[in-house]
Structure formats: C-alpha cells, structure tokens
Amino acid sequence: MPLLLLTLLCAALGGMASAAFAIAFLWVPEHRSAQVLPHFLSFATGALLGAALLGLLPEAIEHVGAGGARGIGWALIGGLGFFFIIEKLVLWWHVHAHDENGHHRGHDHRRERAAGVLVLLGDSIHNALDGVLIAAAFLTSVSLGLLTTFAVAAHEVPHRVGDFAILVQAGLSRRRALLLNLATGVAALVGALGAYSALRQAVGVLPYALAFAAAGFLYIAVAGLIPGLQRRADPRTSALQVLLIALGVAVIAAAERLTRE
C-alpha cells in the first residue's frame, strides 16, 4: 500500500473511527459507562506516555544524533508551549461565550449551543493536529506511524464520548451529533495531507516534528488526563490506575519491539 494512502487511512482511523467507537459507550447503561471510561483514561495515559517516550522521542534523537539533541529539546519545549497556548485559547473561548450569555437569565439554551459550536471547533483543530502527528510518524517509519495512530485513537475515544454528550445537550439529535462528530474527523485528513506534503519537502525538519508530536502526547497525558485521574485518591482506585497506566505503556513497548524485529 502506498505510504500516503496508509497515512491518510490511519489519520481517518484516529479521527473518525474513534468517534464511531465512542458512540457505542452511549448505548451502554450510564452507570456502566461511568465505570468503564475512567479505566480507559488510565490506559490512554499510559499509551500516550509510552508513544512519546519510547517511540517518538528516541526516534527523533536517533535521527539527529547526540549533537542535535539540544535542538530536539527546544522542539519539545516549543511543542509544549504551543499546546499550552491552544488549550488556553479554547478555554478562553468557552469562558467568554459562557460569560456573555450568563448576563441574561433564561438563555441556558444559547449557552449550550455556544458550547456545542466550541466543541466542534476544538475537535476540528485537535483532529488536524492529530493528523500532523500521524503523518510525521509515518514519514519516519511505518511502525512508528502505527504506534502513533494507536495512541491517538486511545485518547480520542473517551474524549469523543464527552463531546458527543455536549452536542446532544446543545439541542442536536443523536444522529446529527454523530454525523457532525464524524465530520470533524475530516480535519485529521487535512492535517495529515498538509504535513505529509510539507515534511517530504523538508526531510531535515522531520526529527523536530517528531519531538513536537511527543510534546503533544506528553501535554495531553500530563496536563489533560492525569489531573482527572488524581481526583479519585482511594487506595483501590489508585492501584488500578497505576496498573492500567503501566498496561498502556507495556502495550506500546511490546508493539514497538515487535515492529522493530
């Protein structure tokens, strides 16, 4: 299969198939899905950490050698800063819409619709960035691309469940919410195609793109997922979280070793 086609197929898998899979959780009784999703978040955290620290970063450093490690460090810092700013903008848009509508009583529906629009906008940006990360990984090696796709899909499923619920609350039918959620996955294809074309023309930038991708995974895991896991501190839940995070890392490590053999 041509590399570009495989890249786009995996970008679609990360962007659209994860949304379709997430919908299955909404047909599960609420108390069941509430029990399963936190465990999925723990596993996704481990998968993201493993993909970043065992796959993307070592590959980037290997390509530039010891002399270029400082540049990889700068790319990692730049990536963390970029994702921090993106998250701040999304949060600002959300708070701004909430405050503007909050001045008027009886406008709850407007606030919910504003939240729905922000979800779609945020998902489109997020998916486009996922497509960039997947393309950068595939241009390095097919095995790294597959690992990156797995990590993207793992963290997208629980994320999409929450977003779908917001869209339904905003007044959309379940069918329309599903279609719009799937449509945002097209942004992953756009991001992957753009990055594939650009990075093929600038191969020297590829290791730094991998470091940027690693920064994205680290930021999502450390700033996005782990704080939510810390809200439950009882010993049994904490032990299970540690085991599932370790399982996510182990799955990535095992897959990375198998693809190298």
Description of the structure:
The protein is mostly helical. It has one domain (3-260). It is built from nine helices and no strands. The protein has helices spanning 3-26, 30-64, 69-102, 108-140, 142-169, 174-183, 186-201, 206-229, 235-260. Helix 2 (30-64) runs antiparallel to helix 8 (206-229) and helix 2 crosses helix 9 (235-260). The radius of gyration is 19 Å and the shape is globular. The two termini are 20 Å apart. The relative contact order is 0.21.
N to C succession of SSEs = HHHHHHHHH
Beta-strand residue fraction: under 5%
Distance between the termini: 20 Å
- From the alpha carbons, calculate the radius of gyration and give it in angstroms: 19 Å
The total of helices stands at 9
Q: What is the 3D shape?
A: globular
Helix content: over 70%
**Count of separate structural domains:** 1
- Low-pLDDT regions: 100-109
Tags for this model:
261 residues, mainly alpha
Set out the fold topology.
Elements: H1 3-26, H2 30-64, H3 69-102, H4 108-140, H5 142-169, H6 174-183, H7 186-201, H8 206-229, H9 235-260
Helix pairs in contact: 1-4, 1-5, 1-6, 1-7, 2-5, 2-8, 2-9, 3-4, 3-8, 4-5, 4-7, 4-8, 5-6, 5-9
